[in-house]
DNA sequence: CATGGATTTTGACATATATCAAACCGGTTA
DNA sequence: TAACCGGTTTGATATATGTCAAAATCCATG
Protein backbone atom coordinates (compact mmCIF):
# COMPACT_ATOMS: atom_id res chain seq x y z
CA UNK A 1 0.00 0.00 0.00
CA UNK A 2 1.07 3.55 -0.64
CA UNK A 3 1.21 5.79 2.40
CA UNK A 4 -1.02 8.85 2.58
CA UNK A 5 2.00 11.09 2.38
CA UNK A 6 3.23 9.40 -0.75
CA UNK A 7 -0.17 9.53 -2.30
CA UNK A 8 -0.71 13.18 -1.74
CA UNK A 9 2.71 13.96 -3.13
CA UNK A 10 2.17 11.89 -6.20
CA UNK A 11 -1.27 13.32 -6.73
CA UNK A 12 0.28 16.71 -6.77
CA UNK A 13 2.84 15.66 -9.33
CA UNK A 14 0.14 13.89 -11.26
CA UNK A 15 -1.62 17.14 -11.78
CA UNK A 16 1.50 18.65 -13.19
CA UNK A 17 2.16 15.71 -15.42
CA UNK A 18 -1.34 15.70 -16.75
CA UNK A 19 -1.43 19.40 -17.19
CA UNK A 20 -0.86 19.11 -20.89
CA UNK A 21 -3.83 16.84 -21.02
CA UNK A 22 -6.20 17.12 -18.14
CA UNK A 23 -7.06 13.47 -17.66
CA UNK A 24 -9.47 13.94 -14.84
CA UNK A 25 -10.94 10.48 -15.20
CA UNK A 26 -7.71 8.72 -15.76
CA UNK A 27 -5.48 10.51 -13.36
CA UNK A 28 -7.13 11.82 -10.28
CA UNK A 29 -7.50 8.80 -8.07
CA UNK A 30 -4.17 7.22 -8.85
CA UNK A 31 -1.16 7.31 -6.58
CA UNK A 32 1.97 6.96 -8.63
CA UNK A 33 5.68 7.57 -8.08
CA UNK A 34 7.53 10.20 -10.01
CA UNK A 35 9.03 7.65 -12.34
CA UNK A 36 5.62 6.13 -12.93
CA UNK A 37 4.35 9.59 -13.59
CA UNK A 38 6.91 10.04 -16.28
CA UNK A 39 5.67 6.97 -18.05
CA UNK A 40 2.07 8.02 -17.68
CA UNK A 41 3.03 11.32 -19.15
CA UNK A 42 4.37 9.64 -22.25
CA UNK A 43 1.07 7.92 -22.71
CA UNK A 44 -0.90 10.82 -24.02
CA UNK A 45 1.22 13.25 -25.91
CA UNK A 46 -1.26 13.69 -28.70
CA UNK A 47 -3.88 16.33 -28.18
CA UNK A 48 -6.08 17.05 -31.14
CA UNK A 49 -8.78 19.58 -31.86
CA UNK A 50 -12.15 18.93 -33.47
CA UNK A 51 -14.64 21.40 -34.82
CA UNK A 52 -18.36 21.15 -34.20
CA UNK A 53 -19.70 18.29 -36.27
CA UNK A 54 -16.35 16.56 -36.78
CA UNK A 55 -16.16 12.85 -36.25
CA UNK A 56 -13.73 11.60 -33.64
CA UNK A 57 -14.28 8.13 -35.01
CA UNK A 58 -16.90 6.39 -37.10
CA UNK A 59 -18.59 3.07 -36.80
CA UNK A 60 -16.35 0.41 -38.28
CA UNK A 61 -13.09 2.30 -37.77
CA UNK A 62 -10.21 0.20 -36.56
CA UNK A 63 -9.73 0.51 -32.83
CA UNK A 64 -6.45 2.03 -31.75
CA UNK A 65 -7.05 4.35 -28.85
CA UNK A 66 -9.35 5.54 -26.18
CA UNK A 67 -9.96 9.26 -26.04
CA UNK A 68 -10.02 11.51 -23.03
CA UNK A 69 -12.03 14.64 -23.64
CA UNK A 70 -9.97 17.63 -22.68
CA UNK A 71 -12.36 20.39 -23.60
CA UNK A 72 -15.71 20.68 -25.30
CA UNK A 73 -18.15 17.83 -25.66
CA UNK A 74 -19.19 14.95 -27.88
CA UNK A 75 -22.12 12.72 -28.56
CA UNK A 76 -21.80 9.03 -29.31
CA UNK A 77 -24.40 7.35 -31.42
CA UNK A 78 -25.06 3.77 -32.44
CA UNK A 79 -26.21 2.95 -35.93
CA UNK A 80 -28.75 0.27 -36.60
CA UNK A 81 -28.58 -1.80 -39.79
CA UNK A 82 -31.89 -0.37 -40.93
CA UNK A 83 -30.52 3.16 -40.81
CA UNK A 84 -31.96 4.14 -37.47
CA UNK A 85 -29.48 5.84 -35.24
CA UNK A 86 -29.63 6.52 -31.56
CA UNK A 87 -27.58 8.76 -29.35
CA UNK A 88 -26.06 6.59 -26.62
CA UNK A 89 -24.40 9.32 -24.63
CA UNK A 90 -23.15 12.86 -24.28
CA UNK A 91 -19.60 13.21 -23.03
CA UNK A 92 -17.83 16.18 -21.61
CA UNK A 93 -14.49 17.26 -20.21
CA UNK A 94 -12.65 14.52 -18.37
CA UNK A 95 -14.65 11.61 -19.69
CA UNK A 96 -13.28 8.69 -21.65
CA UNK A 97 -14.82 7.40 -24.87
CA UNK A 98 -14.13 4.51 -27.17
CA UNK A 99 -14.56 1.62 -24.71
CA UNK A 100 -17.11 -0.06 -26.94
CA UNK A 101 -14.45 -0.79 -29.56
CA UNK A 102 -12.23 -3.04 -27.46
CA UNK A 103 -14.30 -6.16 -27.89
CA UNK A 104 -14.31 -6.27 -31.68
CA UNK A 105 -11.23 -4.19 -32.42
CA UNK A 106 -13.52 -1.89 -34.36
CA UNK A 107 -15.67 0.97 -33.24
CA UNK A 108 -19.32 0.02 -32.98
CA UNK A 109 -20.61 3.54 -32.72
CA UNK A 110 -19.53 6.97 -33.80
CA UNK A 111 -18.44 10.03 -31.85
CA UNK A 112 -19.24 13.53 -33.06
CA UNK A 113 -18.10 16.84 -31.59
CA UNK A 114 -20.99 18.97 -30.34
CA UNK A 115 -18.78 22.07 -30.25
CA UNK A 116 -15.15 22.86 -30.84
CA UNK A 117 -13.34 20.38 -28.66
CA UNK A 118 -9.98 18.89 -27.81
CA UNK A 119 -9.23 15.29 -26.95
CA UNK A 120 -6.20 13.37 -25.79
CA UNK A 121 -5.57 10.16 -27.61
CA UNK A 122 -4.65 7.24 -25.38
CA UNK A 123 -3.18 4.39 -27.42
CA UNK A 124 -4.78 1.32 -25.93
CA UNK A 125 -1.72 -0.88 -26.28
CA UNK A 126 0.30 1.51 -24.19
CA UNK A 127 -2.51 1.74 -21.69
CA UNK A 128 -2.56 -2.03 -21.32
CA UNK A 129 1.21 -2.22 -21.00
CA UNK A 130 1.27 0.44 -18.34
CA UNK A 131 -1.62 -1.04 -16.47
CA UNK A 132 0.23 -4.34 -16.23
CA UNK A 133 2.98 -2.44 -14.48
CA UNK A 134 0.82 -0.29 -12.23
CA UNK A 135 -1.95 -2.08 -10.37
CA UNK A 136 -3.57 1.20 -9.41
CA UNK A 137 -3.85 2.19 -13.04
CA UNK A 138 -5.15 -1.26 -13.87
CA UNK A 139 -7.84 -1.04 -11.27
CA UNK A 140 -8.71 2.42 -12.39
CA UNK A 141 -9.16 1.33 -15.97
CA UNK A 142 -11.42 -1.46 -14.80
CA UNK A 143 -13.44 1.01 -12.79
CA UNK A 144 -13.89 3.27 -15.78
CA UNK A 145 -15.20 0.39 -17.83
CA UNK A 146 -17.42 -0.78 -15.03
CA UNK A 147 -18.78 2.71 -14.53
CA UNK A 148 -19.74 2.79 -18.17
CA UNK A 149 -21.66 -0.45 -17.70
CA UNK A 150 -23.48 0.98 -14.71
CA UNK A 151 -24.25 4.17 -16.58
CA UNK A 152 -25.70 2.19 -19.47
CA UNK A 153 -27.84 0.18 -17.11
CA UNK A 154 -29.18 3.39 -15.64
CA UNK A 155 -30.24 4.45 -19.10
CA UNK A 156 -31.84 1.08 -19.71
CA UNK A 157 -33.90 1.69 -16.61
CA UNK A 158 -34.80 5.15 -17.82
CA UNK A 159 -35.79 3.94 -21.28
CA UNK A 160 -37.59 0.88 -20.03
CA UNK A 161 -39.69 2.28 -17.26
CA UNK A 162 -39.86 6.06 -17.12
CA UNK A 163 -42.33 8.45 -18.65
CA UNK A 164 -41.28 11.37 -20.80
CA UNK A 165 -41.05 14.00 -18.07
CA UNK A 166 -39.21 11.68 -15.73
CA UNK A 167 -36.67 10.99 -18.42
CA UNK A 168 -36.12 14.65 -19.08
CA UNK A 169 -35.81 15.39 -15.37
CA UNK A 170 -33.21 12.66 -14.98
CA UNK A 171 -31.37 14.06 -17.96
CA UNK A 172 -31.32 17.60 -16.60
CA UNK A 173 -30.30 16.49 -13.13
CA UNK A 174 -27.50 14.39 -14.54
CA UNK A 175 -26.22 17.34 -16.53
CA UNK A 176 -26.51 19.53 -13.47
CA UNK A 177 -24.48 17.13 -11.40
CA UNK A 178 -21.79 16.78 -14.03
CA UNK A 179 -21.46 20.52 -14.45
CA UNK A 180 -21.21 20.89 -10.69
CA UNK A 181 -18.46 18.26 -10.55
CA UNK A 182 -16.51 20.43 -12.98
CA UNK A 183 -16.89 23.57 -10.94
CA UNK A 184 -19.57 25.04 -13.18
CA UNK A 185 -23.01 26.18 -12.19
CA UNK A 186 -25.33 23.29 -11.48
CA UNK A 187 -28.38 25.40 -12.18
CA UNK A 188 -27.55 27.45 -15.20
CA UNK A 189 -26.03 26.09 -18.36
CA UNK A 190 -26.16 25.91 -22.10
CA UNK A 191 -27.29 22.74 -23.79
CA UNK A 192 -24.86 21.68 -26.44
CA UNK A 193 -27.30 19.37 -28.17
CA UNK A 194 -30.55 19.81 -30.09
CA UNK A 195 -34.01 18.70 -29.00
CA UNK A 196 -33.73 16.03 -31.61
CA UNK A 197 -30.52 14.69 -30.06
CA UNK A 198 -31.96 14.81 -26.56
CA UNK A 199 -34.98 12.94 -27.84
CA UNK A 200 -32.87 10.31 -29.50
CA UNK A 201 -30.95 9.82 -26.28
CA UNK A 202 -34.09 9.63 -24.16
CA UNK A 203 -36.12 7.51 -26.55
CA UNK A 204 -38.56 10.34 -27.30
CA UNK A 205 -39.50 12.46 -30.30
CA UNK A 206 -38.25 16.02 -30.32
CA UNK A 207 -41.76 17.40 -30.01
CA UNK A 208 -42.21 15.44 -26.79
CA UNK A 209 -38.95 16.80 -25.45
CA UNK A 210 -40.01 20.31 -26.33
CA UNK A 211 -43.39 19.89 -24.68
CA UNK A 212 -41.83 18.49 -21.55
CA UNK A 213 -39.50 21.47 -21.36
CA UNK A 214 -42.49 23.75 -21.72
CA UNK A 215 -44.41 21.93 -19.00
CA UNK A 216 -41.48 22.21 -16.62
CA UNK A 217 -41.33 25.89 -17.36
CA UNK A 218 -45.08 26.34 -16.84
CA UNK A 219 -44.75 24.62 -13.48
CA UNK A 220 -41.91 26.85 -12.40
CA UNK A 221 -39.35 24.05 -12.32
CA UNK A 222 -37.06 25.53 -14.91
CA UNK A 223 -36.47 28.47 -17.18
CA UNK A 224 -35.71 27.41 -20.69
CA UNK A 225 -35.19 29.41 -23.80
CA UNK A 226 -33.86 27.46 -26.73
CA UNK A 227 -30.61 26.00 -25.47
CA UNK A 228 -30.09 27.96 -22.31
CA UNK A 229 -31.50 26.32 -19.23
CA UNK A 230 -31.91 27.42 -15.65
CA UNK A 231 -32.99 24.90 -13.05
CA UNK A 232 -35.22 26.72 -10.57
CA UNK A 233 -36.39 23.92 -8.33
CA UNK A 234 -34.00 21.01 -8.01
CA UNK A 235 -35.94 19.28 -5.20
CA UNK A 236 -39.11 19.19 -7.26
CA UNK A 237 -37.22 17.90 -10.26
CA UNK A 238 -35.85 15.15 -8.08
CA UNK A 239 -39.18 14.25 -6.62
CA UNK A 240 -40.69 14.14 -10.06
CA UNK A 241 -38.57 11.09 -10.81
CA UNK A 242 -40.18 7.93 -9.60
CA UNK A 243 -43.75 9.13 -9.58
CA UNK A 244 -45.07 6.31 -11.63
CA UNK A 245 -48.40 6.67 -13.42
CA UNK B 1 3.08 -13.53 -30.99
CA UNK B 2 2.30 -17.14 -30.21
CA UNK B 3 2.60 -19.55 -33.12
CA UNK B 4 -0.45 -21.44 -34.31
CA UNK B 5 1.03 -24.70 -33.14
CA UNK B 6 1.60 -23.37 -29.66
CA UNK B 7 -1.84 -21.90 -29.52
CA UNK B 8 -3.61 -25.05 -30.49
CA UNK B 9 -1.64 -27.03 -27.93
CA UNK B 10 -2.39 -24.60 -25.16
CA UNK B 11 -6.03 -24.41 -26.13
CA UNK B 12 -6.21 -28.13 -25.80
CA UNK B 13 -4.68 -28.06 -22.35
CA UNK B 14 -6.88 -25.15 -21.48
CA UNK B 15 -9.93 -27.26 -21.99
CA UNK B 16 -8.60 -29.82 -19.59
CA UNK B 17 -7.70 -27.23 -17.04
CA UNK B 18 -11.08 -25.61 -17.20
CA UNK B 19 -12.93 -28.86 -17.15
CA UNK B 20 -13.84 -28.44 -13.53
CA UNK B 21 -15.33 -25.10 -14.39
CA UNK B 22 -16.21 -24.61 -18.00
CA UNK B 23 -15.15 -21.00 -18.42
CA UNK B 24 -16.19 -20.62 -22.02
CA UNK B 25 -16.01 -16.87 -21.93
CA UNK B 26 -12.85 -16.63 -19.98
CA UNK B 27 -10.84 -19.44 -21.42
CA UNK B 28 -11.52 -20.22 -25.01
CA UNK B 29 -9.63 -17.58 -26.89
CA UNK B 30 -6.55 -17.50 -24.72
CA UNK B 31 -3.25 -19.12 -25.59
CA UNK B 32 -1.37 -19.97 -22.44
CA UNK B 33 1.55 -22.18 -21.49
CA UNK B 34 1.13 -25.20 -19.26
CA UNK B 35 2.46 -23.34 -16.26
CA UNK B 36 0.16 -20.44 -16.94
CA UNK B 37 -2.66 -22.91 -17.18
CA UNK B 38 -1.87 -24.18 -13.77
CA UNK B 39 -2.24 -20.73 -12.35
CA UNK B 40 -5.46 -20.13 -14.20
CA UNK B 41 -6.70 -23.36 -12.84
CA UNK B 42 -6.13 -22.18 -9.31
CA UNK B 43 -8.24 -19.15 -10.02
CA UNK B 44 -11.61 -20.74 -9.89
CA UNK B 45 -11.73 -23.68 -7.60
CA UNK B 46 -15.03 -22.72 -6.10
CA UNK B 47 -18.07 -24.01 -7.88
CA UNK B 48 -21.35 -23.41 -6.13
CA UNK B 49 -24.92 -24.43 -6.78
CA UNK B 50 -27.99 -22.24 -6.60
CA UNK B 51 -31.63 -23.24 -6.60
CA UNK B 52 -34.28 -21.46 -8.63
CA UNK B 53 -34.95 -18.11 -6.99
CA UNK B 54 -31.69 -17.98 -5.04
CA UNK B 55 -29.73 -14.79 -5.08
CA UNK B 56 -26.17 -14.95 -6.37
CA UNK B 57 -25.67 -11.47 -5.00
CA UNK B 58 -27.85 -8.58 -3.97
CA UNK B 59 -27.66 -4.89 -4.59
CA UNK B 60 -25.28 -3.35 -2.08
CA UNK B 61 -23.27 -6.51 -1.44
CA UNK B 62 -19.56 -6.00 -1.18
CA UNK B 63 -17.80 -6.82 -4.42
CA UNK B 64 -15.37 -9.70 -4.25
CA UNK B 65 -15.71 -11.80 -7.34
CA UNK B 66 -17.01 -12.12 -10.82
CA UNK B 67 -19.06 -15.20 -11.53
CA UNK B 68 -18.89 -17.49 -14.54
CA UNK B 69 -22.10 -19.37 -15.09
CA UNK B 70 -21.35 -23.02 -15.42
CA UNK B 71 -24.84 -24.37 -15.82
CA UNK B 72 -28.36 -23.03 -15.63
CA UNK B 73 -29.25 -19.38 -16.01
CA UNK B 74 -29.74 -16.15 -14.13
CA UNK B 75 -31.41 -12.81 -14.46
CA UNK B 76 -29.84 -9.58 -13.31
CA UNK B 77 -32.05 -6.73 -12.25
CA UNK B 78 -31.44 -3.16 -11.25
CA UNK B 79 -33.40 -1.57 -8.43
CA UNK B 80 -34.54 2.00 -8.57
CA UNK B 81 -34.80 4.07 -5.40
CA UNK B 82 -38.56 4.33 -5.81
CA UNK B 83 -38.93 0.58 -5.72
CA UNK B 84 -39.18 0.01 -9.44
CA UNK B 85 -37.02 -2.81 -10.64
CA UNK B 86 -35.98 -3.71 -14.11
CA UNK B 87 -34.41 -6.82 -15.54
CA UNK B 88 -31.15 -5.79 -17.20
CA UNK B 89 -30.18 -9.14 -18.61
CA UNK B 90 -30.59 -12.89 -18.79
CA UNK B 91 -27.37 -14.86 -18.53
CA UNK B 92 -26.64 -18.43 -19.41
CA UNK B 93 -23.85 -20.98 -19.44
CA UNK B 94 -20.44 -19.50 -20.13
CA UNK B 95 -21.34 -15.90 -19.45
CA UNK B 96 -19.75 -13.67 -16.82
CA UNK B 97 -21.71 -11.56 -14.39
CA UNK B 98 -20.83 -9.03 -11.74
CA UNK B 99 -18.93 -6.51 -13.86
CA UNK B 100 -21.14 -3.67 -12.68
CA UNK B 101 -19.73 -3.92 -9.17
CA UNK B 102 -16.13 -3.08 -9.98
CA UNK B 103 -16.62 0.66 -10.09
CA UNK B 104 -18.09 1.13 -6.64
CA UNK B 105 -16.81 -2.02 -4.92
CA UNK B 106 -20.44 -2.88 -4.31
CA UNK B 107 -22.97 -4.63 -6.46
CA UNK B 108 -25.40 -2.21 -8.05
CA UNK B 109 -27.87 -4.84 -9.15
CA UNK B 110 -28.92 -8.28 -8.08
CA UNK B 111 -28.57 -11.67 -9.74
CA UNK B 112 -31.23 -14.35 -9.28
CA UNK B 113 -31.15 -17.96 -10.49
CA UNK B 114 -33.91 -18.74 -12.99
CA UNK B 115 -33.43 -22.47 -12.49
CA UNK B 116 -31.07 -24.70 -10.59
CA UNK B 117 -27.66 -23.46 -11.60
CA UNK B 118 -23.95 -23.66 -10.89
CA UNK B 119 -21.46 -20.84 -11.02
CA UNK B 120 -17.69 -20.54 -10.67
CA UNK B 121 -16.53 -17.77 -8.44
CA UNK B 122 -13.62 -15.75 -9.84
CA UNK B 123 -12.02 -13.65 -7.10
CA UNK B 124 -11.39 -10.35 -8.80
CA UNK B 125 -8.09 -9.67 -7.04
CA UNK B 126 -6.67 -12.88 -8.37
CA UNK B 127 -8.04 -12.10 -11.79
CA UNK B 128 -6.30 -8.76 -11.78
CA UNK B 129 -3.05 -10.24 -10.55
CA UNK B 130 -3.09 -12.91 -13.20
CA UNK B 131 -4.03 -10.51 -15.92
CA UNK B 132 -1.00 -8.39 -15.08
CA UNK B 133 1.10 -11.46 -15.75
CA UNK B 134 -0.68 -12.66 -18.87
CA UNK B 135 -1.39 -10.01 -21.49
CA UNK B 136 -3.72 -12.35 -23.34
CA UNK B 137 -5.85 -12.76 -20.25
CA UNK B 138 -5.72 -9.02 -19.67
CA UNK B 139 -6.94 -8.31 -23.16
CA UNK B 140 -9.61 -10.93 -22.81
CA UNK B 141 -10.92 -9.42 -19.62
CA UNK B 142 -11.08 -6.05 -21.33
CA UNK B 143 -12.97 -7.58 -24.21
CA UNK B 144 -15.51 -9.12 -21.89
CA UNK B 145 -16.15 -5.78 -20.26
CA UNK B 146 -16.31 -4.03 -23.60
CA UNK B 147 -18.73 -6.63 -24.92
CA UNK B 148 -21.00 -5.93 -21.99
CA UNK B 149 -20.95 -2.25 -22.89
CA UNK B 150 -21.83 -3.02 -26.49
CA UNK B 151 -24.58 -5.37 -25.41
CA UNK B 152 -26.07 -2.71 -23.16
CA UNK B 153 -25.97 -0.19 -25.97
CA UNK B 154 -27.85 -2.64 -28.16
CA UNK B 155 -30.55 -2.80 -25.53
CA UNK B 156 -30.64 0.98 -25.29
CA UNK B 157 -31.31 1.02 -29.01
CA UNK B 158 -34.03 -1.55 -28.60
CA UNK B 159 -35.69 0.28 -25.72
CA UNK B 160 -35.31 3.67 -27.27
CA UNK B 161 -36.49 3.07 -30.78
CA UNK B 162 -38.23 -0.24 -31.34
CA UNK B 163 -41.86 -1.16 -31.18
CA UNK B 164 -43.14 -4.02 -29.10
CA UNK B 165 -43.01 -6.74 -31.74
CA UNK B 166 -39.59 -5.69 -32.92
CA UNK B 167 -38.32 -5.92 -29.37
CA UNK B 168 -39.72 -9.37 -28.91
CA UNK B 169 -38.31 -10.52 -32.24
CA UNK B 170 -34.86 -9.23 -31.29
CA UNK B 171 -35.18 -11.00 -27.97
CA UNK B 172 -36.14 -14.32 -29.53
CA UNK B 173 -33.44 -14.10 -32.18
CA UNK B 174 -30.84 -13.30 -29.56
CA UNK B 175 -31.89 -16.32 -27.51
CA UNK B 176 -31.83 -18.44 -30.64
CA UNK B 177 -28.31 -17.37 -31.46
CA UNK B 178 -27.06 -17.97 -27.97
CA UNK B 179 -28.58 -21.43 -27.82
CA UNK B 180 -27.03 -22.22 -31.19
CA UNK B 181 -23.62 -21.07 -29.94
CA UNK B 182 -23.95 -23.63 -27.17
CA UNK B 183 -24.80 -26.48 -29.48
CA UNK B 184 -28.50 -26.42 -28.66
CA UNK B 185 -31.38 -26.04 -31.08
CA UNK B 186 -31.70 -22.50 -32.34
CA UNK B 187 -35.37 -23.02 -33.17
CA UNK B 188 -36.80 -24.92 -30.27
CA UNK B 189 -36.26 -24.06 -26.65
CA UNK B 190 -37.78 -23.50 -23.27
CA UNK B 191 -38.00 -20.01 -21.88
CA UNK B 192 -36.66 -19.86 -18.37
CA UNK B 193 -38.32 -16.56 -17.57
CA UNK B 194 -41.89 -15.37 -17.16
CA UNK B 195 -43.76 -12.97 -19.45
CA UNK B 196 -43.44 -10.47 -16.68
CA UNK B 197 -39.66 -10.79 -16.66
CA UNK B 198 -39.45 -10.61 -20.44
CA UNK B 199 -41.59 -7.51 -20.30
CA UNK B 200 -39.42 -5.91 -17.69
CA UNK B 201 -36.35 -6.59 -19.79
CA UNK B 202 -37.95 -5.26 -22.97
CA UNK B 203 -39.63 -2.27 -21.40
CA UNK B 204 -43.13 -3.66 -21.96
CA UNK B 205 -46.01 -4.89 -19.83
CA UNK B 206 -46.56 -8.61 -19.66
CA UNK B 207 -49.84 -8.35 -21.52
CA UNK B 208 -48.08 -6.70 -24.43
CA UNK B 209 -45.48 -9.46 -24.47
CA UNK B 210 -48.21 -12.06 -24.45
CA UNK B 211 -50.11 -10.38 -27.25
CA UNK B 212 -46.98 -10.10 -29.35
CA UNK B 213 -46.32 -13.78 -28.88
CA UNK B 214 -49.86 -14.50 -29.98
CA UNK B 215 -49.53 -12.30 -33.04
CA UNK B 216 -46.34 -14.05 -34.04
CA UNK B 217 -48.11 -17.34 -33.69
CA UNK B 218 -51.11 -16.17 -35.71
CA UNK B 219 -48.76 -15.08 -38.47
CA UNK B 220 -46.98 -18.41 -38.53
CA UNK B 221 -43.68 -17.03 -37.31
CA UNK B 222 -43.51 -19.12 -34.16
CA UNK B 223 -45.23 -21.78 -32.15
CA UNK B 224 -45.57 -20.84 -28.54
CA UNK B 225 -47.29 -22.52 -25.69
CA UNK B 226 -46.54 -21.10 -22.28
CA UNK B 227 -42.76 -21.31 -22.00
CA UNK B 228 -41.94 -23.60 -24.86
CA UNK B 229 -41.12 -21.81 -28.07
CA UNK B 230 -40.47 -22.96 -31.60
CA UNK B 231 -39.22 -20.47 -34.15
CA UNK B 232 -40.80 -21.38 -37.48
CA UNK B 233 -39.64 -18.56 -39.73
CA UNK B 234 -36.34 -17.03 -38.77
CA UNK B 235 -36.02 -14.90 -41.94
CA UNK B 236 -39.37 -13.26 -41.33
CA UNK B 237 -38.50 -12.63 -37.71
CA UNK B 238 -35.31 -10.97 -38.87
CA UNK B 239 -37.04 -8.85 -41.46
CA UNK B 240 -39.58 -7.77 -38.89
CA UNK B 241 -36.85 -5.89 -37.07
CA UNK B 242 -36.31 -2.47 -38.51
CA UNK B 243 -39.70 -2.00 -40.07
CA UNK B 244 -40.37 1.31 -38.46
CA UNK B 245 -43.90 2.64 -38.23
C1' DC C 1 -29.61 45.14 -40.69
C1' DA C 2 -32.03 41.93 -43.61
C1' DT C 3 -32.55 37.29 -45.35
C1' DG C 4 -33.07 32.48 -45.17
C1' DG C 5 -32.49 28.04 -43.23
C1' DA C 6 -32.51 25.42 -39.25
C1' DT C 7 -34.39 24.68 -34.85
C1' DT C 8 -38.02 25.04 -31.63
C1' DT C 9 -42.67 25.55 -30.11
C1' DT C 10 -47.46 24.69 -30.33
C1' DG C 11 -51.76 22.56 -32.02
C1' DA C 12 -54.92 18.88 -33.69
C1' DC C 13 -55.25 14.28 -34.27
C1' DA C 14 -53.72 9.15 -34.60
C1' DT C 15 -52.02 5.11 -32.55
C1' DA C 16 -49.30 1.89 -29.84
C1' DT C 17 -49.14 0.37 -25.54
C1' DA C 18 -50.86 0.50 -20.72
C1' DT C 19 -54.51 -0.50 -17.70
C1' DC C 20 -58.14 -3.04 -15.72
C1' DA C 21 -60.68 -7.11 -15.66
C1' DA C 22 -62.07 -11.64 -16.66
C1' DA C 23 -61.31 -16.18 -18.39
C1' DC C 24 -58.11 -19.85 -19.15
C1' DC C 25 -54.54 -23.16 -18.34
C1' DG C 26 -51.09 -26.37 -16.15
C1' DG C 27 -49.20 -28.13 -12.41
C1' DT C 28 -49.37 -29.04 -7.31
C1' DT C 29 -51.59 -30.19 -3.14
C1' DA C 30 -55.32 -31.91 -0.46
C1' DT D 1 -60.48 -36.30 -8.57
C1' DA D 2 -61.18 -31.61 -6.95
C1' DA D 3 -59.57 -27.29 -5.60
C1' DC D 4 -56.27 -24.03 -5.95
C1' DC D 5 -52.61 -20.97 -7.39
C1' DG D 6 -49.46 -18.61 -10.27
C1' DG D 7 -48.88 -17.63 -14.72
C1' DT D 8 -50.86 -16.69 -19.23
C1' DT D 9 -54.16 -15.24 -22.65
C1' DT D 10 -57.72 -12.30 -24.32
C1' DG D 11 -60.96 -8.33 -24.36
C1' DA D 12 -62.54 -3.45 -23.65
C1' DT D 13 -61.02 0.94 -22.76
C1' DA D 14 -57.76 4.80 -21.39
C1' DT D 15 -53.73 7.44 -22.09
C1' DA D 16 -49.09 8.88 -23.17
C1' DT D 17 -46.58 9.70 -26.85
C1' DG D 18 -46.10 9.87 -31.88
C1' DT D 19 -47.33 12.08 -36.25
C1' DC D 20 -48.26 15.76 -39.24
C1' DA D 21 -48.46 20.55 -39.98
C1' DA D 22 -47.99 25.36 -39.19
C1' DA D 23 -46.19 29.21 -36.76
C1' DA D 24 -42.50 31.25 -34.11
C1' DT D 25 -37.85 31.86 -32.98
C1' DC D 26 -33.00 31.66 -33.35
C1' DC D 27 -28.64 32.15 -35.70
C1' DA D 28 -25.38 32.62 -39.41
C1' DT D 29 -24.26 35.07 -43.42
C1' DG D 30 -24.22 38.43 -46.83
| Largest interface chains and counts | A-B, 49 and 48 residues
Mean pLDDT over the full residue set of chain A: 87
Secondary-structure element pattern of chain A, one letter each: HHHEEEEEEEEHHHEHHEEH
Number of strands of chain A: 11
Helix percent band of chain A = 40-55%
Structural class of chain A: alpha+beta
Radius of gyration of chain A: 19 Å
Strand order of the largest sheet of chain A: 1-8-3-6
Number of helices of chain A: 9
The rough form of chain A would be described as globular
Query: Uncertain regions of chain A: pLDDT < 50 for 5+ in a row?
Result: 1-20
Give a short account of the largest sheet of chain A.
4 strands, antiparallel
Q: What attributes does this structure have?
A:
homodimer; DNA-binding; 245 residues; four-stranded antiparallel sheet; alpha+beta; disordered N terminus
Structure overview:
- The structure is a homodimer of 245-residue chains.
- By secondary structure, chain A is of the alpha+beta class.
- The first copy, chain A, is 45% helix and 22% strand.
- Chain A has helices at 4-17, 24-27, 34-43, 124-133, 135-161, 164-181, 195-202, 206-218, 234-240; strands at 47-50, 55-57, 65-71, 73-79, 85-92, 96-97, 109-113, 117-123, 188-190, 222-225, 228-231.
- The first copy, chain A, has a 4-stranded antiparallel β-sheet.
- In chain A, β4 (73-79) and β5 (85-92) form a beta hairpin.
- Chain A is globular.
- Chains A and B meet through α4, α5 and α7 of A and α4, α5 and α7 of B.
- The structure holds a DNA duplex (30 and 30 nucleotides).
